[in-house]
Amino acid sequence: MTTGIKSESELLANIFFPGHHPAQQPIIMLEDEFTAKSFPTNAIGLLAFSKKPTVSGYESISFGYVNNPGGGIRWLYPVNARQPIFLRLYNGSGWRAKLLAGIFKTAFSLGMERMVRSGIVHVFYKNKAPLGGLLDHCPTGDMAIFTGTVGENRKAVVAFDDHAGQSWFFKLPLTAAAVGLVKNEQQTLAQLAKFGLSKMAVPIGKPFANGLMVSNVKPPVESNSFDLQPAHFEAIEELAERTAQQARLGSLPFWDEINANLEALQHQPILNDLSPPQVNRVIEQLVALHNSLDPELVLPTVLAHGDFTPWNMYIGDRKIHVYDWELSERLPLLNDVFHFIFQAGVLVKKLPYSGIQSLIFSMKKDESMRKILGVHVGDFDFFYTLYLLRNISYYLPKYLRQRTLHRQAHWLLEAWDSALTTTGKYAESF
């Protein structure tokens, strides 16, 4: 426990004291480490993982925290919170997820939250309250923090209710890459607000401090599915109708991103346990696929979500409710459809690539798919090829640079290898 907390000191400092000056680093104190003499007067704050010390001239808030199964803090919440608001940050639909949620809800309802927390951290501050003043928007004190997913896109997410009882999430970027993603989501949400969508609900976005506040779009009655439903197709079709444009492949930002990522892959060492032969084979296939495409080709594009997956949405009564638009951009038609099937197939259903390929290509004759494709029915294979090229070239460099990988990265690499091997057999016809 001690080692894990020490290793996360920078993460916690950036969450509780965003934008702090390097000369005013908050201090991490563990059990029995604190004495009044050991606390510098210029420190912006103190994070005490111990019995609550007495610190003259500082105010404090105490947070309970829940660790990830493998260690490291996952959620934090004020110890006087009346409900497990951190469950708003947890979109899980399997039986394990429901069981976990039920345990936390029961513990809080019985006043026994101490039984499910991993520990307490006392946050002391002097001139500015933790979270950059966000707590001023949270009158009841019922809020929670998700520390984010490890990687170069990491950001913390704070769930809270405002003075009007409206549920919000505050996204706090913790890396340079995450700053760009949060800004992109802000711009996309402003654009989507102008479309008057009836088949898809999206959040309201409000810039705040160093991040972005987004409204909670979870409907009162919701469900989820790891298979595409009519509601998904209707929403994708509506968004395509509102945003479709013809564009030259080489003029699109995602094409420049592919070029940059492929260049980076030529020089990026593997910093983890991914298989070098498999990584090299995937890179070779990506380059060959890229070289087979004509950047002068004109194709239909739409505003795509970019990470259209079951865990980034809910199914409501008459529409789908979609959040996390950070990776949105103008992409070739059907990108979101392919991504939903591929990610759910690998990460949830744990299908071999043959099963994923069967699900994707069985859609060719689907009436909903034909409505989305319109006159571009014959380009289905081409759109799928572009999806693979863009998605794999985006994520693979990030995985190679990440020293600690989740096992799902290995599953994805295996599926990418098989997908590119299969795709290469017909790519020459494009």
Structural features:
single chain; Aminoglycoside 3'-phosphotransferase, Chain: A, domain 2; 430 residues; alpha+beta
Strands ordered across the widest β-sheet = 1-2-5-3-4-6-7-8-11-10
Number of helical elements: 12
Structural class: alpha+beta
The outline comes out as globular
Average per-residue pLDDT, rounded, comes to: 87
Number of domains: 2
Beta strand %: 15-25%
Report on this model:
The chain is globular, with a radius of gyration of 23 Å. The protein is built from twelve helices and 16 strands. The model has no long low-confidence stretch (mean pLDDT 87). The relative contact order is 0.10. Helix 7 packs across helix 12, helix 8 runs antiparallel to helix 9 and helix 11 packs antiparallel against helix 12. The longest helix is centred in the C-terminal third of the chain and has 22 residues. It has two domains: 214 residues, no CATH class; 200 residues, Aminoglycoside phosphotransferase (APH), C-terminal lobe (Aminoglycoside 3'-phosphotransferase, Chain: A, domain 2). It starts with a helix and ends in a 7-residue tail after the last helix. Strand 6 and strand 7 form a beta hairpin. By secondary structure, it is of the alpha+beta class.
